[in-house]
């Protein structure tokens, strides 16, 4: 516990100048202290790759010159020379006034830079930089120096709004190059089409126009007329006297008797249909018709039934009035 507080205090002191203008997050300081302590243990055990990762995580949570120096040493010992050189460039730009940090960074660069490719990336505006798909630095920057081994590489600059640009190149050991990225224009969101509600006729009450009532009345009248015609036809075709004469001694299987039954059934169905029509029209007229809709009321439909008993034909006569 005493050692943990010692590490925390050390990180607080060395990170103080960097964070003078911002509030220090105590939780991040605690995490940085734990990662730094774990990194020191890994370094002493010779696990330099693990130590480097822990030191870089600690630096990310609470930047300090001491933590960055340990990350550089660990990367160099792990033979991650390109990453060590990139951290050296970061150290010189951030802690160039710190003698110990600057001396370490220059010494490592003198040893490793001749075998590496140096890239100076400039962005307008500041961007996040990826090298071969890996983030080089968490913070966005306008200028960043990084190193890579010789061979093919891809540098990607990213901005907000999912904007990015990539450049691919093949570098040779000891070569230096400058890469410039300018953010593409932000795509304007497509304007949504304006929805225009269609004009609706009527009074807006949600009820039907009187036309529906009059149409129903006309259809019901048709059924009524057909019912009257069918009743008369049932009485006269073939008629009681003709049935008695034609069916003497033949029983109910007599054709004339069966025709009378068929005509009677037809009349009963038409009578039922007429009754349903009367009730339906009455309900529509009382509850579902907007009688105040004068514009719709000016249009009327008249339906008149026609029947010809001589040839048993039926018909409808429709008249429209506007």
Descriptive account of the structure:
By secondary structure, this protein is an alpha+beta fold. It folds into three domains: 1-12 and 25-113, Serine Threonine Protein Phosphatase 5, Tetratricopeptide repeat (Alpha Horseshoe); 116-184, Immunoglobulin-like (Sandwich), CATH 2.60.40; 210-321, no CATH class. The protein has helices at 2-15, 26-44, 48-61, 65-77, 81-94, 99-112, 210-236, 240-246, 255-287, 294-297, and strands spanning 117-131, 134-135, 141-148, 151-159, 163-171, 176-182, 300-308, 313-321. Strands 1, 2, 3, 4, 5 and 6 form a six-stranded mixed sheet that branches. Strands 7-8 form a two-stranded antiparallel ribbon. The longest helix has 33 residues, at 255-287. The N and C termini lie far apart (97 Å). The model is unreliable at 1-9 and 11-22 (pLDDT under 50).
Mind sketching the topology for me?
Layout: H1 2-15, H2 26-44, H3 48-61, H4 65-77, H5 81-94, H6 99-112, E1 117-131, E2 134-135, E3 141-148, E4 151-159, E5 163-171, E6 176-182, H7 210-236, H8 240-246, H9 255-287, H10 294-297, E7 300-308, E8 313-321
Parallel strand pairs: 1-6
Antiparallel strand pairs: 1-2, 1-3, 1-4, 4-5, 7-8
Helix pairs in contact: 1-2, 2-3, 3-4, 4-5, 4-6, 5-6, 7-9
């Amino acid at each position: 516990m005493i050692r943990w507080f010692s590490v925390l205090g050390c990180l607080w002191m060395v990170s103080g100048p960097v964070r003078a203008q911002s509030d220090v997050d105590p939780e991040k300081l605690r995490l940085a202290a734990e990662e730094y302590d774990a990194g020191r243990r890994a370094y002493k055990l010779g696990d330099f790759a693990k130590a480097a990762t822990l030191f870089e995580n600690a630096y990310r949570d609470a930047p300090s010159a001491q933590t960055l120096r340990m990350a550089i040493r660990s990367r160099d010992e792990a033979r991650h020379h390109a990453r060590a050189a990139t951290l050296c460039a970061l150290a010189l730009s951030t802690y160039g006034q710190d003698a110990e940090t600057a001396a370490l960074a220059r010494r490592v660069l003198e040893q490793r830079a001749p075998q590496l490719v140096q890239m100076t990336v400039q962005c307008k505006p500041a961007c996040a930089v990826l090298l071969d798909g890996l983030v080089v630095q968490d913070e966005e920057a306008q200028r960043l120096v990084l190193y890579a081994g010789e061979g093919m590489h891809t540098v990607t600059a990213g901005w907000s709004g999912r904007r990015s640009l990539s450049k691919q190149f093949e570098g040779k050991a000891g070569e230096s190059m400058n890469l410039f990225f300018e953010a593409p224009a932000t795509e304007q969101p497509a304007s949504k089409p304006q929805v225009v509600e269609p004009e609706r006729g009527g009074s807006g009450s949600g009820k039907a126009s009187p036309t529906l009532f009059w149409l129903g009345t006309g259809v019901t009248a048709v059924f009524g007329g057909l019912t009257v015609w069918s009743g008369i036809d049932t009485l006269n075709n073939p008629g009681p006297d003709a049935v008695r004469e034609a069916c003497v001694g033949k029983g109910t299987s007599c054709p004339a008797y069966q025709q009378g039954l068929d005509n009677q059934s037809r009349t009963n169905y038409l009578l039922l249909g007429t009754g349903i029509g009367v009730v339906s029209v009455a309900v529509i007229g009382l509850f579902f018709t907007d009688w105040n809709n004068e514009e719709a009321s000016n249009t009327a439909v008249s339906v008149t039934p026609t029947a010809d008993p001589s040839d048993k034909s039926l018909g409808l006569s429709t008249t429209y009035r506007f």
